[in-house]
């Protein structure tokens, strides 16, 4: 294990770093540091201070790049992301201030019209962030942010299908069905790469729980992110919105949200919608790779509910498009 979130030595070192950083910022901890959530891939602790709660997050080795990514985005776009108070890039540690309720927290229950409007506004703000982060793409790759550009995804699909654990989790029939998709998948990736939309940061787990309401909307929790075709963010976003709104794949509400996001990108609307469809398909492989990173060298035992996530995302390649 790279870390053990409950190992006393690890916890002592982490808390010492937190206290040192807060002392240097003039907002020392005023009480015990408390673990709030522990997952196999990350852990979050709450730190009380006179200036309000502070939050410490640590990631396992394959997800450590989040600290560097969060820092890079904060330097480029400080008004549109949660700016860290401190980062340790080597150990993958982040310290942030409390930023209040998330968008999910403030969406009114039983009011789908308002929810759709707020989701659309958020997606437009996120698209603008991606556009403005495009010049960072090469720098982010150099920082270790995963490469999920369309031109590399066919190789990653082949790598996953060759993994004995993935093959076993899929089972013979599903493995054969996904393998049969490989030629079409390569064509989708080639078409997407030729779409003219440049690679940029792609959150890969964009939900209403990973953004603080605006304006300006501020985005956080980049532990699944990669450098990829930007429209891939719609895969998780539309799935989350569908759950919130209680609608299925293909619902007109989701098409409205897709179009709100695409309105921030220049180009022919039909071509943009085609690129969004392709991105929704191929991003299933980057989601599988994200789960593979999260579960490999985990810091805690992996619960059964997460153990098949890689295979489930690959198996989704044979399913219908989100919109």
Automatic annotation (TrEMBL):
User: This protein's superkingdom?
Assistant: Bacteria
Which InterPro entries does this chain map to? Kinase-like_dom_sf
Q: What is this protein called?
A: Aminoglycoside phosphotransferase domain-containing protein
Cite the source lineage.
Answer: Bacteria, Bacillati, Actinomycetota, Actinomycetes, Micromonosporales
């Amino acid at each position: 294990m790279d870390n053990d979130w409950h190992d006393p030595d690890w916890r002592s070192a982490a808390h010492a770093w937190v206290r040192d950083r807060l002392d240097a910022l003039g907002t020392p901890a005023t009480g015990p540091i408390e673990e709030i959530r522990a997952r196999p891939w990350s852990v979050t602790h709450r730190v009380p201070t006179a200036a309000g709660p502070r939050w410490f997050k640590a990631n396992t080795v394959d997800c450590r790049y989040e600290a560097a990514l969060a820092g890079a985005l904060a330097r480029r776009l400080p008004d549109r992301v949660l700016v860290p108070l401190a980062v340790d890039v080597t150990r993958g540690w982040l310290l942030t201030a409390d930023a209040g309720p998330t968008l999910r927290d403030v969406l009114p229950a039983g009011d789908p019209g308002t929810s759709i409007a707020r989701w659309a506004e958020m997606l437009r703000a996120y698209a603008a962030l991606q556009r403005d982060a495009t010049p960072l793409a090469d720098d982010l790759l150099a920082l270790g942010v995963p490469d999920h550009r369309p031109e590399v995804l066919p190789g990653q699909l082949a790598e996953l299908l060759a993994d004995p654990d993935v093959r076993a989790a899929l089972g013979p029939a599903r493995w054969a069905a996904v393998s049969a998709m490989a030629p079409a998948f390569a064509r989708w990736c080639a078409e997407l790469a030729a779409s003219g939309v440049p690679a940029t940061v792609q959150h890969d787990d964009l939900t209403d729980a990973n953004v603080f309401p605006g304006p300006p909307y501020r985005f956080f929790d980049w532990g699944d992110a990669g450098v990829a075709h930007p429209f891939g963010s719609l895969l998780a976003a539309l799935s989350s919105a569908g759950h919130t709104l209680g609608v299925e794949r293909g619902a007109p509400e989701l098409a409205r949200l897709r179009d709100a996001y695409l309105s921030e990108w220049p180009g022919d609307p039909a071509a943009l919608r085609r690129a969004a469809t392709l991105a929704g398909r191929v991003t299933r492989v980057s989601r599988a790779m994200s789960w593979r990173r999260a579960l490999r060298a985990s810091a805690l035992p992996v619960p059964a509910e997460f153990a098949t996530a890689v295979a489930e995302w690959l198996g989704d390649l044979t399913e219908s498009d989100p919109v």
